[in-house]
């Protein structure tokens, strides 16, 4: 039975390889059926009062990049007041000072008006479970040279709560909510299980080697269950793929109207370690 299954898989792979070489080796790009007005990134955090939200026009071709959306009316309600966000020197990035940024278990509401259309989003601020030395999403060992070698997996499963992390050290920048192009540095702990074996998880990880007395800064970000499910669904379409994977599905964020993305509210815990303290 195992030999039969293996032969079927090999046959399917062979057919895929043969078909890819027929006629035109370049497969045509299939345009998305849905063309969104805009995409939303960013939100409110408890780490600092100055907050940032980025608006872009999604790209329609793999060779193009998202375009910044300017001249939008962006406001966030913190439960009491409407705070106006203004576009910064970076086109498409809007910023404001939100003094009431620790309104735990309360709802923050984002309102965007652009091209005579309105888009709404809400998220709830959940308190982060403080960083615990015994449950860090990395492993580290001491080398013969005295240096510390470590591995940071991008995805770890089976945690009680889903969280987003950023682990910074020499060569990896500290977290900056004004920067939106550092997604490769994030890692995630999921409460949901790992993907089905037919859709294998890409073995993504980051490795480091540092001196024993160098410092590592670890940021942990809280997430609502809805945000965690959004990211899990997103990764199923972008990273956890196999030869039996289906056509990419629509990922539903929390932005109303013809918009995509997720407006989040997050609590942040930060701890600093010497690399020698991470050895287990």
Structure description:
With 280 residues, the protein is mainly beta. It is built from two helices and 18 strands. It has helices at residues 2-20, 225-238; strands spanning 38-45, 50-57, 67-68, 73-77, 82-87, 93-97, 107-114, 117-124, 139-142, 148-153, 155-157, 163-168, 186-190, 205-210, 215-222, 259-261, 264-266, 268-274. The strands form three sheets. Strands 1, 2, 3, 4, 5, 6, 7, 8, 16 and 17 form a ten-stranded mixed beta sheet that branches. A five-stranded mixed beta sheet has the order 11-13-12-15-18, with no helix packed on it. Mean pLDDT is 86; it is low at 1-18.
> What is the CA–CA distance across the termini?
43 Å
- Please describe the biggest sheet, giving its number of strands, its sense, and whether it closes into a barrel: 10 strands, mixed
Number of helices: 2
Low-confidence parts: 1-18
Got a strand count?
Answer: 18
Shape category: globular
Task: Indicate the radius of gyration in whole angstroms.
Answer: 22 Å
Q: Approximately how much helix is present in the residues?
A: 10-25%
User: Structural class of the secondary elements?
Assistant: mainly beta
Strand content: 35-45%
Mean pLDDT, to the nearest integer, reads 86
Order of helices and strands: HEEEEEEEEEEEEEEEHEEE
């Amino acid at each position: 039975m195992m030999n039969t299954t293996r032969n079927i898989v090999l046959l399917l792979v062979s057919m895929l390889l043969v078909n890819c070489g027929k006629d035109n080796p370049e497969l045509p790009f299939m345009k998305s059926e849905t063309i969104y007005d805009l995409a939303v990134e960013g939100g409110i955090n408890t780490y600092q009062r100055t907050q940032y939200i980025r608006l872009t026009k999604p790209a329609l071709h793999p060779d193009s990049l998202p375009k910044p959306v300017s001249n939008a009316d962006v406001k966030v309600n913190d439960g009491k007041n409407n705070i106006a966000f203004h576009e910064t020197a970076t086109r498409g990035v809007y910023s404001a000072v939100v003094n009431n940024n620790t309104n735990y278990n309360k709802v923050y509401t984002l309102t965007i008006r652009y091209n005579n259309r309105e888009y709404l989003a809400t998220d709830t601020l959940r308190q982060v479970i403080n960083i615990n030395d015994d449950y860090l999403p990395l492993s580290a060992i001491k080398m013969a040279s005295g240096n510390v070698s470590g591995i940071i997996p991008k995805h770890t499963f089976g945690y009680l709560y889903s969280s987003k992390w950023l682990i910074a050290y020499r060569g990896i920048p500290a977290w900056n909510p004004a920067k939106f192009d550092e997604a490769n540095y994030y890692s995630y702990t999921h409460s949901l299980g790992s993907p089905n074996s037919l859709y294998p998880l890409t073995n993504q990880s980051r490795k480091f080697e540092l001196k024993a007395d160098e410092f590592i800064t670890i940021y942990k970000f809280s997430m609502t269950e809805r945000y965690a499910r959004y990211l899990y669904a997103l990764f199923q379409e972008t990273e956890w793929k196999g030869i039996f994977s289906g056509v990419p599905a629509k990922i539903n964020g929390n932005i109303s109207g013809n918009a995509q993305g997720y407006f989040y509210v997050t609590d942040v815990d930060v701890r600093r370690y010497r690399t020698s303290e991470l050895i287990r």
